[in-house]
Amino acid sequence: MRAFTYTRAATPHEAAAAVAAHPGAKFVAGGTNLLDLMKVDVEKPTHLIDINRLGLDRIEPLADGGLRIGALVRNTDLAADSRVIAGWPVLTRALLAGASGQLRNKATTAGNLLQRSRCPYFYDTTKPCNKRDPGTGCAALGGFSRNLAVLGVSDMCISQHPSDMAVAMRVLDATVETVAADGATRSIPIAEFHTLPGATPHIENVLGHGELITAVTLPRPIGGTHVYRKVRDRASYAFAVVSVAMIRGNGIQRFAFGGIGTRPWRVEQAERLSGAEAIAERVLVGARPTTQNRFKLALTRRTLAAVLDQA
Amino acid sequence: MEFLTPAGPNSTDRQTVLGKAHDRIDGPLKVSGLARYAYEYHDVAPRAAYGVVVTAGIGRGSIDSIDAVDAERAPGVLLVMTHLNAPKMFGQNAAAPNDPRLDHATPQLQGPRITQHDQAVALVVAETFEQARAAARSLRIGYKAQSGRFSLPAMQVEGKPHPRVADIDMGDFDTAYASAPVRIDATFTTPNQSQAMMEPHASLAFWDGDRLTVYLAHQVMHWARSGIAGTIGIPEAQVRVVAAYVGGGFGSKLALYSDAILASVASRQLGRPVKITLTRAQIFNHTTHRPPTIQRLRLAAGHDGRLIAVGHETFTGDQPGERGELASNQTRLLYGGANRRIHTRIAELDLPRGGSMRAPGEAAGLLALENAMDELAEKLGMDPVELRIVNDVQYDPEQGPSRPFSERKLVECLRTGADRFGWSHRIATPGQVRDGQWLVGMGMACAIRSNPVQPSGARVTLRPGGTVLVESAMTDIGTGSYTIMAQTAAEMLGLPMAAVEVRLGDSAYPKASGSGGSWGGNSSTAGTYAACVALRDTLARRAGFDGSDVSFDKGLIVSGGRSVALAQLVASGPVTAEDTMTYGDLTRRYAQASFGAHFCEVGVDVHTAEVRVRRLLSVCSIGRVLNPVTARSQCLGGMTMGIGAALMEELVVDPRFGYFVNHDLAEYQVPVHADVPDLDVVFVDGEDTKSSPMKARGVGELGICGVGAAITNAVYNATGVRVRDYPVTMDKLLAGMT
Ligand SMILES: Cc1cc2nc3c(=O)[nH]c(=O)nc-3n(C[C@H](O)[C@H](O)[C@H](O)COP(=O)(O)OP(=O)(O)OC[C@H]3O[C@@H](n4cnc5c(N)ncnc54)[C@H](O)[C@@H]3O)c2cc1C
Ligand code: SF4
Fold first, then answer.
1. Cis amide bond preceding B727, omega within 30
2. CB within 8 Å: A1 and B734
3. What is the Cα–Cα distance from B391 to B334, expressed in whole angstroms?
4. HSE on the CB side for A193, CA within 13 Å?
5. What is the pLDDT of residue A168?
6. CA-to-CA distance for A170 and B503, rounded, in angstroms?
7. Concatenated DSSP letters for B446-457?
8. How many beta-carbon contacts under 8 Å exist across A and B?
9. How many whole angstroms separate alpha carbon B511 and alpha carbon B550?
10. Quick one: how many helices (H) and strands (E) in chain B?
11. Taking CB atoms and an 8 Å limit, are B57 and A295 in contact across chains?
């Protein structure tokens, strides 16, 4: 960790302006991802703006029956919210499948969406990594790639998106609300929020420097059976090898996937199909596995079959 | 005191305190944070400066350039030490081959050559930890990387006979194997594994004149002391090491690393205390680990299941001169069979140096042997428990009946376990039992772990007021040494536990066995026993008793109808006795090992091949149980580690860079609570009079021995898929599942 300065902002707009004014600045929310990365010298902000006291920690109903989740709502509180459990249970299930109780107590809604890669080379500053140090190469290609992505990969980066919550947000068609330094606000559909690595794997989303997430909104409940199935190498406290978020019933069928894509993965066209084989085949179009993670293709198919059995 | 002949009746036989369940006496200190670990001493060394070790980013090669200008100028920095300015240190080398004074030496920063990833290349010391860490980041070190021998399978052709392990060839293996009616020929691989103990390696060093004190995390105090003294070239007598509490070791803390050595020399140079801890990420490559193996098992039996030929050939690899993983060892003792080929081959690797990890040898070897026995049982159409029973031997199979086991109750373990577990409900044909999404299977395996003992001493003082102080350089690495040594003193002196205080982990106390190789519990209590015998003699003389019929009970010495209160004997001052238990040739005359049988039920998700252990029972024979609570805890920990070995633990080698890629606890997965069901441990009654006057044997490593094979045998029974490449992860299982 390197020396940095630290301030607290009074309003969201002021926080955005403070980061925008300072090229090395970053927001800090729960800090569970950012501080870890600072300790291993992967993130090197020179200035931190603490956004924990901006009043962005409320969950409010929207007039259209939807829900507005403040950016700073903790993962634990969000998972336990009775409205979420009733209307959007896939979100609760995904949250509770992630990390550990202690981490969820600190982790925030926005921070979770923005958590960075879990590729082991990304963490290791002695090894090449285009995401960490653009242009140095990708150590995972030809290296330890067992748990990395098979979809949305590029020759520059094959890191999977590690979030569970984001997979549920994707299947729920959430919207990300932001405010920029100039006070301008925008609403970004979750489908457009995370970007593919392409030639610029260090860019992971469409936010501008200093653009602050203020909330994530959910459209009104659509009913159906909600499932979040996370497959992992041990029973708890591990990132997904493959995960499936499913909403089914009421004439609806939706799937989103974690662990296999460079961003939360959803293929809407596949949702019109029926049967695990057909759906998986459509979802996995364009997959580029390595020899180590090829098993994720079969595992995706099998996990999908398992969740379809459930509803 | 010498232990030369089997123990007869002695004062430990009373079993009023020994053998009884006692929670660990250090437990309250630990859960309240009052038990201090090496990095947590502040009062003994005020104004300590903080060191951060910088470790190499290549697996093999040399340091090309060092630019320390920014680091030296960084705020708070007191010292930047590299090979360019480090003091001369000493280690085993061509000039001093096999110098026992240098057995534990670990020189640091002695040149530009890099022989393993995360070797120390610099030390930065600053006023605060944060300053040292920041300055360490601004140190620029250039390397010239070289290719290296990083892959065990690629080195197999280079395998040479092990310089320290003789081949065992008995009878005519080839002919016997070839002509036997039922045969198994299977090759298993076990990966590099990390001890992954809780407390990182850490040291706090300070000097008083030419005397050095180091608070550190180590399992054997005299090894730490001689290692530090030897490395920096000062007499051992000038070094004191302290490790009152150690947060786990599993073998990792049998060796010294850069933290202890560099804290010592930096403190001397700066004239103030220096503390250093390794980071979690450094530990996986900088410190030792369990080396990998490739094991070929060839077992042949008659239709009655009796083994005719036993072949176990281990191939392992390690840094030049290091031991590798001796996975064939237990096969020499576990089962009979007249024709035997037990070989070990080793190749040099440039991966990080291997070392001991809980049950070195057996933990990896039994994964293969006990899996192969399961395969043999299936081929024979015989129950796996029965197969073990027909091949039981009551003597060392290589020496014959002239070398019996000191106590071998493996068959009792097997029968007790089978009964208690409901083994008879197992369906031998795989893939028959389904519970919802789960394919359910049962498996079993045997455990054996050799029972070494080590000389161990203690000083016992009866203090005014009638309380007892036990002092010993023994360590307690979370095992319960404090407690069982207190029980021994209480039993020997006829006092309640509350009257005994135990102080450990200081080289200023009498030299002790330390903790390793499952010898700690038996050896350290035997040392306490010896000192107590000496104290009893002194006290008896003071009380005016002569002779042998003296007993100690309820704070009194009693003999011939007369009794004297202990407190009365020390009214004018404390009485102290010190002794060391040493051993003769009973380990040569008797084969000595602890035994066990593990029974496991797993569920394997029919869709995803996720494996979950549902039930696990271990029945253990460890001679006399000193304390059922601490002994059980040792088994539970071993069984948990066995779940890790079976299902998830692997240091993944990246042969391009020559290192273990998954070097943190997020990526090197060990079992979490949800992976560990309710574990059951049973001890069969016993006493081992050939082992020590305590009549106990080692238990610290027994729990991990074989348990992984019981789990993977259960996986096979559940699925019909046999994975011989540990750990058994879902990708490997899926390849065989429909
Ligand atoms: C050991 C471990 C295991 C884990 N396991 C899982 C798991 O199984 N599944 C899972 O999904 N996650 C897991 N996580 C990740 C965890 O969910 C994230 O660390 C957490 O959600 C991040 O939230 P935070 O508030 O702490 O973010 P921070 O660390 O504070 O911030 C993360 C990033 O987001 C930026 N940021 C934060 N808030 C805003 C905002 N409002 N606007 C703009 N930028 C912002 C910060 O600048 C920073 O770059 C694990 C983490 C750890 C340490
Ligand atoms: S996969 Fe991405 S994160 Fe991993 S090394 Fe390659 S570029 Fe870096």
1. yes
2. no
3. 9
4. 27
5. 98
6. 59
7. EEEEE-----EE
8. 91
9. 29
10. 18, 31
11. no
Contacts of B94 (CB under 8 A, 6+ apart): none
CA dihedral over A243, A245, A249, A254, signed as positive or negative: negative
Using an 8 Å CB-CB cutoff, list chain A residues near B663: 120, 124
Sign of CA dihedral B292, B298, B303, B307: negative
- Would the pTM count as exceeding 0.95? yes
Amino acid at A271: E
Instruction: Compute the distance from residue A216 Cα to the ligand 2 centre, in Å.
Output: 28
Q: Count CA atoms closer than 13 A to B140's CA, side-chain side.
A: 4
Lookup: tokens for B203: 């040291």
- Cα torsion through A138, A142, A144, A146, rounded to 10: 110
pLDDT (tens digit per residue) in A219-232: 999 999 999 999 99
Q: Would you say B622 and B658 are in contact if contact means Cβ atoms under 8 Å apart?
A: no
Distance (Å) of CA B564 to CA B494, B500, B558: 12, 19, 7
Closest approach of chain A CAs to the CA of B655, in angstroms? Answer: 8
String of DSSP letters for A91-159: HHHHHHTSS-HHHHHH-BHHHHHH-----TTTT-TTS-BTTTSTTS-BTTTTS--TTS-SBS--SS--P
pLDDT at A2: 86
pLDDT at B93: 78
Q: Residue B172 carries which DSSP code?
A: -
pLDDT of residue B707: 98
**Residue ranges for chain B with pLDDT beneath 50:** none
pLDDT digit string (tens) for B432-479? 999 999 999 999 999 999 999 999 999 999 999 999 999 999 999 999
Disruptive mutation site among A39, A233, A239, A297 for chain B (greatest number of B CBs within 10 Å):
A233
Task: Return phi, psi of residue B240, to 5°.
Answer: -120, 130
The answer to whether B314 and B326 have CB atoms below 8 angstroms apart is yes
pLDDT-flagged residues of chain A (< 50): none
Half-sphere exposure at residue A105, Cβ-oriented, CA atoms within 13 angstroms: 3
pLDDT confidence of residue B648: 98
What is the length of chain B?
738
pLDDT of residue A250: 84
**ipTM over cut 0.95:** yes
State whether the Cα torsion B392-B395-B398-B400 is positive or negative: negative
Q: Which residues contact B147 (CB under 8 A, 6 or more apart)?
A: B60
Task: Point out the residues of B that are catalytic.
Answer: 701
Candidates B453, B337, B333, B455; CA nearest to B403 is B333
Report all structural domains of chain B as residue ranges with CATH numbers, in order of start: 2-35+453-586 (3.30.365.10), 361-451+592-737 (3.30.365.10)
Burial class (CB in 10 A: 0-12, 13-18, 19+), B21: exposed
pLDDT score for B59: 98
Cβ of A201 less than 6 Å from ligand 2: yes
Structure tokens at B196: 């992954």
- Tell me the C-alpha distance between B241 and B225, whole Å: 6
Nearest to B195 by CA among B241, B247, B123: B247
How many C-alpha atoms does B640 have within 13 Å on its Cβ side?
21
CA pair distance A94, A246, nearest whole angstrom? 11
Strand pairing class (B2-3; B575-583)? parallel
Amino acid at B574: P
User: Left, alpha or beta for B196 (phi > 0: left; psi -120 to 50: alpha)?
Assistant: left
Across the interface, which of A139, A238, A242 has its CB nearest the CB of B669? A238
